[in-house]
Each structure stands twice: as C-alpha cells, then as structure tokens.
C-alpha cells in the first residue's frame, strides 16, 4: 500500500490526509514517547498544563501523555477523517478534545495554551522549498505565538532538514522574545534511520522582562554538556551533527572491505578545509572481522598524500599489519594549527571512540 503522495505539495492538502488516514492504521512519525519522554516531560512541566497538539493525526503520543497524567490536551488536525477516528477510539478520555481545525487559522483565543506540541507537523507543512510553503510556515509560527501564553512553550520534534532549521533559526530563535533549547535523541523503540531533534521555544513576556540574546542552548551527539550557541552557528551545528549521525549509522556494523570518510571541521580555524579527515576501514578478512578489535593511527605530518595513508589499498595494508577488525586513519589537513601530537590525540579521541565497532574488545 502506497501512502506517500505523488508530489510533496500534497502534504499540505486536506484531501491527501483524509485519504492517508482512510488507508493507514496507527502511524508514528519520529519515534514513540519512550524515545524522548525524559526531555518532553521536562518541557511540558506541570501535569495541569494546557496542551495543544497540532497535526495530531493518529499518533499515540496524546494518548500516551494522557496515561502519564497530562490530561488537558486539545488535539487538532486538518483531516476530519482522522479526528473522527480518534474521537471514537478515545471516548474513555473525557478531558481530551479532538477538533478538526487548520493550524494556520485557529479559532482559539489569544494566549490560550501553556504548551503547543508539534511532532513532525512543521516538517510536513514545509515539504517543499517554495515561496508558498515558506509563507505558510511564517503564518504557522505567528498563529502558534498568538495562542501560546506568555512563558508558554512551543515544543517541536523535527528532522531539521536544512531549510527547516534555517526557518526556525530566523523566525523563532533569531527573535528576541524566545528562549530556545535544541537536543538530539535516538529512536530506540524501533529500527529507524531517522535522527530527530526535540526543541523547546519559551515565549517571553512582553512587558517588564529582559529580552534574551538570540541564541539556543544545544546538546548534540558527542557533546559532553549543553552549550549556548549563537544564531550564526546554529544551522551549521545541526547539519554537522546530522552528518555525524548518518556516518555513525554506517559504521555501527563491521562490513568486509568498508571504507568511510569523515571530515571534522573547526569553524573557528578554517571554514574552507576540514581540520581532520578520518578514514574508517574494515578488514576484508572475515577472521579479522570476528575479532571485533579496533586501532587508530595518526598520519605523520607531510605523509597525508602518500600510498599508505591516502589510498584505500594502502589503508588495508596498514590494517592487515595491525591485525585488527577496524582501523581509523587520521589525517591532519593543511590550513590549521594542530599543535603537538598529544593535542591531536586529545582532539580526535572522541570521534575515534564513536566509530568503534559494537562490542569492541579493544580501545583504539
């Protein structure tokens, strides 16, 4: 059964979603509550919070939150088909409402909700990089801001494709009346290729409250702690983390003869050339693969373009000499100040540890 539209623009039509929900059973975008519950509960705050779930679809998220004690939930969707389905399925949840409504033109009074919750709805609305979609996104943000109380929150779960994080960065984070926080999470409840982000944007009071500096507190893969990031760097930080996520997805299994390249950038040093290039190389020999061992080697300065360090064949020969399942070859690229060898080891150790094969028996 083909549930995807023939054109991305159909994601913005009521007709597509009515047809989708006539055909589909329960459908989850970007994981289940168990994948991000700790972060979401922190953002939702008190269980008495008045919550608006936009583009609710037939996701179980509202029902799961209801079971967790968050019962004051209003669910809206443009599809009357799915709204009627969810009403019928949840008659035993009297405090929860299901309403057919367009989030771009809501009938709620100003400052009605403590939290607006969005799980994949912005991604569906901004399905194409067109002026029409961009205008709808701006209208969406204005409507969400209108119905949110002062100190209320817009909680967004998104894949943050580049055009989407740019829009969020410009029209929410870049405004001086929002406090912003962005974190990644891993979908563990099912096999998934998605790398979603959960974000919380707190609407500041209009009167008598200091305006925050335009930035976001971010926590990405491999970061030891949350860090305040200015708007000028947010998009690149998100894209960098997405590239790392895709890279780690490829390296989570040993594959005979696999060789993957990872570039590590330093925006404070040189934005034209990566500071380091890592080649992650897996053995051809199956006897070596089953050992689940790993080693790393840092290329001597001046040898970056030689046979052993630059070519796939040379990397394999180094691996066979080391007799390991996986070898990480680290190249220092020109145009950067790398410091002494111990400084290089310290700087790349985190990345090297991230690409160890699962259940690795050695530390590189």
Description:
- With 364 residues, this protein is α/β, with parallel strands linked by helices.
- It has helices spanning 14-23, 33-44, 61-67, 80-89, 121-125, 131-147, 162-173, 231-251, 286-289, 307-310, 312-322, 341-354; strands spanning 51-54, 73-77, 97-100, 113-119, 148-158, 178-184, 197-203, 215-219, 227-230, 259-264, 276-282, 294-298, 326-332.
- The strands form two sheets. It has a nine-stranded mixed β-sheet with strand order 3-2-1-4-5-7-6-8-9. A four-stranded mixed β-sheet has the order 10-11-13-12, with helices on both faces.
- Helix 4 (80-89) links the parallel strand 2 and strand 3 (97-100).
- Helix 7 (162-173) runs antiparallel to helix 8 (231-251).
- The chain is elongated and about 70 Å long.
For the secondary structure, the number of strands is 13
Radius of gyration: 24 Å
Largest sheet: 9 strands, mixed
Average predicted confidence as pLDDT = 87
Looking across the biggest beta sheet, what order are the strands in? Answer: 3-2-1-4-5-7-6-8-9
Number of helices: 12
Helix content class: 25-40%
Shape: elongated
Secondary structure category: alpha/beta
Order of helices and strands: HHEHEHEEHHEHEEEEHEEHEHHEH
């Amino acid at each position: 059964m083909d549930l995807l539209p023939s054109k991305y623009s159909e994601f913005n039509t009521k007709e597509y979603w009515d047809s989708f929900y006539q055909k589909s059973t329960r459908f989850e975008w970007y994981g289940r509550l168990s994948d991000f519950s700790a972060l979401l509960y922190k953002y939702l705050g008190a269980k008495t919070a008045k919550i608006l779930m936009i583009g609710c679809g037939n996701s179980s998220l509202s029902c799961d939150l209801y079971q967790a004690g968050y019962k004051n939930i209003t669910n809206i969707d443009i599809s009357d088909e799915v709204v009627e389905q969810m009403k019928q399925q949840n008659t035993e949840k009297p405090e929860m409402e299901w309403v057919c409504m367009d989030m771009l033109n809501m009938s709620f009074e100003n400052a009605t909700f403590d939290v607006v919750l969005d799980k994949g709805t912005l991604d569906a609305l901004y399905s194409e990089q067109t002026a029409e979609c961009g205008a709808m996104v701006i209208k969406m943000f204005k409507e969400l801001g209108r119905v949110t109380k002062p100190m209320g929150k817009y909680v967004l779960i998104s894949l943050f494709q580049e055009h989407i994080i740019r829009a969020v960065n410009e029209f929410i984070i870049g405004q001086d009346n929002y406090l912003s926080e962005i974190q990644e999470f891993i979908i563990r409840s099912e096999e998934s290729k998605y790398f979603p982000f959960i974000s919380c944007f707190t609407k500041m009071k209009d009167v008598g409250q200091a305006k925050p500096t335009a930035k976001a507190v971010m926590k990405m893969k491999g970061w030891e702690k949350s860090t305040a990031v200015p708007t000028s760097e947010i998009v690149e930080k998100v894209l960098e983390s997405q590239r790392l996520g895709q890279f780690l997805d490829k390296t989570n299994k040993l594959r005979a003869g696999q060789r993957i390249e990872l570039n590590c950038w330093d925006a404070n040093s040189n934005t034209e050339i990566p500071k380091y290039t890592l080649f992650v190389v897996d053995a051809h020999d199956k006897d070596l693969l089953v050992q689940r061992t790993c080693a790393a080697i840092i290329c001597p300065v001046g040898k970056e373009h030689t046979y052993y360090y630059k070519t796939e064949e040379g990397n394999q020969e180094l691996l066979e000499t080391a007799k390991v399942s996986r070898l990480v070859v680290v190249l220092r690229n020109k145009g950067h100040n790398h410091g002494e060898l111990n400084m290089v080891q310290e700087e790349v150790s985190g990345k090297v540890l991230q690409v160890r094969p699962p259940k690795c028996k050695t530390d590189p």
